[in-house]
Amino acid sequence: MEATANEEEFTGLKVMVIDDSKTIRRTAESLLKKAGCDVVTAIDGFEALSKIADHKPDIIFVDIMMPRLDGYQTCALIKNNSLFKQTPVIMLSSKDGLFDKARGRIVGSEEYVTKPFTRDELLGAIRKHARTH
Fold it and tell me: Residue 6 has what pLDDT?
């Protein structure tokens, strides 16, 4: 019963998911849309940076291991932009190492979620960091 009460909890919240894995993007998009989020996806940091300006997401999930521009570089570029430095960035990684978490903090990420993630982990990160309307 409780799940349906929360389904529309994040209606209108703009969430960006950056991951080179189509499966991860689809999974995250599906989970987030069910919670009422508007979801924008990007395959890598370059695509994400062009979409961020257009969509102005409320929170961004970014995979660490991506070709061309990895998650750390992408996060650093987002945080170095005065328009988006307040936007929470959540790192996604299949590695659960202390070094990776520390490196994520150094580039300005708010949190680190290990893949495979659950619906509760994604929504929990949004609840904690996004300024909901």
Answer: 53
As averages over each run of 10 residues, the pLDDT of the chain (133 residues) reads: 58 96 96 97 95 96 94 97 96 89 95 94 95 62
CATH of the domain at 100: 3.40.50.2300
What is the reported pTM?
0.92
> Which residues form the domain of 8?
2-126
User: What three-state secondary structure class fits 50?
Assistant: helix
Look at the chain and report how many structural domains it folds into.
1
Identify whether the C-beta of residue 1 lies closer than 8 Å to the C-beta of residue 54.
no
Does any domain span residue 131?
Answer: no
Residue 132 lies in a domain: no
Burial 28-46 (b: 16+ CB within 10 A, else e): bbebbeebebbbbbbbbbb
Radius of gyration of the chain measured on its C-alpha atoms: 14
